[in-house]
Design brief:
- The protein is α+β, with helices and mostly antiparallel strands.
- Helix content is 45%, strand content 17%.
- Strand 6 (58-62) and strand 7 (65-69) form a beta hairpin.
- Helix 6 runs parallel beside helix 9 (234-250) and helix 9 (234-250) packs across helix 11 (269-280).
- The relative contact order is 0.11.
C-alpha cells in the first residue's frame, strides 16, 4: 500500500488490502480479517471506499462531520475526503475499494454517475442505515463478490463490475429521497449539473453568472431551481465548497494560511480570514490548531 505522510494526515495512494495484482483497481476484504481496520487516525484515499458494516458501534468523522457507526451501516467515501472511524466493538463486514478508473469503466457517461448520489462529493447523506431485512437480503451479493475477488477466473473483473453495479443499484433504491428528488425533473437535473460544475471549476469560476452561462440558464432560473431542491442559492453552494476545500488545505500542516488563501485564489488574506470565519465560525488559525489535536 502506497502511503504519503508529508502532511499531518496520510494519503493512501493505492489500495492493496488484498494480494491480487489488480488490487489497485478493485479489492474486497472482510473487516474481521484486518486488525489494522478501523483506522482511527484521520486520512484520505485516492480511490472510492465503501464500508459495509454488519456489526459495529462507534463514530465516523467524514470531512469534519460526525456520523453514527452502528450495525447494518454502509458508508460511502469519495477520493480525497478526509475521514477516520472507530468502533467500540470488533467490527464485522466488508471493505470495498475501487479506483476512479474502475468506476469510469462502469459509468462512461457523467449522466450515469449522477444516478448514484452517495458517490457525489456534494451528497447530503454519505451513509445508509439499513434495516436488518435489507442487510440480510444484500449480504449474499457481498459474499458472491468476495468469492469472485478471491478467485482467478477468466473475466473476473468484468464479473466484479457487474456485481458492484447491482449492489450500487440496490443501495440507490434504498437511498433516502431528498428534496431535490421530489422536485421537478428539470430542477433536479439542473441541480445535479450545477453541483458537478462546481466540482470541476470552483477554483476557476467564482461568479454564479459564469456557471449559469455554462448551463444555458439565467442566474434567476438557476437560483430558483436550487432553492426548490436544496433550499439554498447558487452562491451559498459555491461558498460551501470553497470552505470545505479550505478546511482540507488547512488540515495540512505544510500549508500555511497564506498559502491556503492563494491556492483558493484569495489575493487578500484578511478577506479570506473573514470569509472563512463567517462560514466555519472559527478563524483559519483556530481551525488549524483544532485539527492538529482532533480525535474521535
Amino acid at each position: 500500500m502506497s502511503v504519503s505522510t508529508k502532511s499531518t494526515f496520510p494519503v493512501f495512494n493505492t489500495s492493496a488490502l488484498s494480494d491480487d495484482i489488480n488490487a489497485d483497481y478493485f479489492d474486497l476484504v472482510r473487516l474481521q480479517d484486518r486488525p489494522d481496520i478501523p483506522r482511527e487516525f484521520l486520512h484520505r484515499h485516492t480511490y472510492y471506499h465503501l464500508l459495509w458494516l454488519s456489526e459495529a458501534e462507534g463514530v465516523h468523522l467524514l470531512d469534519f462531520e460526525r456520523f453514527e457507526v452502528r450495525a447494518n451501516s454502509v458508508f460511502f467515501i469519495n477520493p480525497g475526503q478526509l475521514h477516520s472511524w472507530k468502533s467500540m466493538t470488533k467490527p464485522k463486514g466488508y471493505v470495498i475499494n475501487f479506483s476512479a478508473e474502475f468506476f469510469l469503466q462502469m459509468f462512461p457517461s457523467t449522466g450515469d454517475m449522477t444516478k448514484y448520489p452517495f458517490f457525489n462529493i456534494a451528497s447530503e447523506t454519505p451513509v445508509l442505515y439499513l434495516a436488518q431485512s435489507q442487510h440480510d437480503q444484500l449480504l449474499p451479493l457481498l459474499r458472491m463478490m468476495e468469492r469472485e475477488a478471491l478467485g482467478h477466473a477468466v473475466s473476473r473483473l468484468d464479473v466484479l463490475k457487474s456485481y458492484l453495479l447491482v449492489l450500487l443499484i440496490e443501495l440507490r433504491r434504498l437511498y433516502p429521497e431528498s428534496n431535490s428528488q421530489t422536485a421537478s425533473a428539470h430542477n433536479y437535473t439542473l441541480t445535479k449539473q450545477y453541483k458537478l460544475l462546481i466540482e470541476d471549476h470552483y477554483l476557476q469560476l467564482v461568479s454564479v453568472r459564469d456557471y449559469a452561462a455554462k448551463l444555458h440558464v439565467t442566474e434567476r432560473q438557476l437560483n430558483e431551481a436550487l432553492k426548490r431542491t436544496q433550499g439554498k442559492t447558487a452562491g451559498q453552494l459555491l461558498q460551501e465548497r470553497l470552505v470545505l476545500e479550505a478546511k482540507r488545505l488547512l488540515s495540512n500542516t505544510d500549508s500555511s494560511i497564506k498559502q491556503t488563501a492563494l491556492q483558493l485564489n484569495f489575493d487578500d488574506i484578511a478577506y479570506f480570514c473573514r470569509f472563512f470565519k463567517k462560514h466555519a465560525l472559527l478563524t483559519p488559525s483556530e481551525f488549524k490548531k483544532r485539527t492538529l489535536d482532533i480525535k474521535l
